[in-house]
Design brief:
- The complex is a heterodimer.
- Chain A is built from no helices and 11 strands.
- Chain A is mainly β.
- Helix content of chain A is 0%, strand content 54%.
- Chain B is mainly beta.
- Chain B has strands spanning 3-7, 10-14, 19-26, 30-38, 44-49, 56-58, 61-66, 71-76, 85-95, 98-103, 107-112.
- The N and C termini of chain B lie far apart (41 Å).
- The chains are: A mainly beta, B mainly beta.
- Chains A and B meet through strand 5, strand 9 and strand 10 of A and strand 4, strand 5, strand 9 and strand 10 of B.
């Protein structure tokens, strides 16, 4: 079974520039998550999709971040304009039901963003 | 507010030592406790625990959940330098009609040769 794919793996931009990240979840996984992980911290949920609908974007800085999941498969996360504090690893994950009401989550390799 | 707390924040041991990592949680509608190992970027899945008192084991790693006291431990025996990583725990729970995960800040383990 192929894992969660993400690209690019690394990105360096200057502040106020734009950047986009791409994620392809595991086939058949309806739920997709974007996390931001700042150095020394645990992953923080930015946005969660169920199929192509947003179910939680309460921690997404909507003035600069946007995300979409067209057709309920691939997803893109965009930052425009970037700030220095956006430097982090952006992790995409997808999940599937294992039994009953329990879901198991798998992560992609992540994108390390450096904003100069 | 839901939270997951890990301790210690960091740990340095020598090869061959046994370590115990702790994870406590206060989460509404809790369903599962997950452990991940994060070496460079992406967390890799170790265990998912849903029932109290049932130990899960994989090689030198084992984990157990106590749903009464709201904590889990991850044990690593006979540590090796390759065990050096950040270990994350996360709770899986239902909230607002969706299943979500809340992560702790991780325990950074360094194993010295």
């Amino acid at each position: 079974e192929a894992g969660v794919a993400q690209s690019p793996r690394y990105k360096i931009i200057e502040k106020r520039q734009s950047v986009a990240f791409w994620c392809n979840p595991i086939s058949g996984h309806a739920t997709l998550y974007w996390y931001q992980q700042i150095l020394g911290q645990g992953p923080k949920l930015l946005i969660q999709f169920q199929n192509n609908g947003v179910v939680d974007d309460s921690q997404l800085p909507k003035d600069r971040f946007s995300a979409e999941r067209l057709k309920g498969v691939d997803s893109t996360l965009k930052i425009q304009p970037a700030k220095l504090e956006d430097s982090a690893v952006y992790l995409c994950a997808s999940s599937t039901r294992t039994s009953g009401s329990i879901y198991e989550q798998f992560f992609g390799p992540g994108t390390r963003l450096t904003v100069l | 507010e839901d939270k997951v707390v890990q301790s210690p924040l960091s740990l340095v041991v020598h090869e061959g030592d046994t370590v115990t990592l702790n994870c406590s949680y206060e989460v509404t509608n809790f369903r599962s406790l997950l452990w991940y190992k994060q070496e460079k970027k992406a967390p890799t899945f170790l265990f998912m625990l849903t029932s109290s008192g049932i130990e899960k084991k994989s090689g030198r790693l084992s984990s157990i959940l106590d749903k009464k006291e709201l904590f889990s431990i991850l044990n690593i025996t006979a540590t090796q330098t390759g065990d050096s990583a950040v270990y994350l725990c996360a709770s899986g729970a239902w909230g607002s009609g969706t299943y979500k995960y809340i992560f702790g800040t991780g325990t950074r383990l360094k194993v010295l040769a």
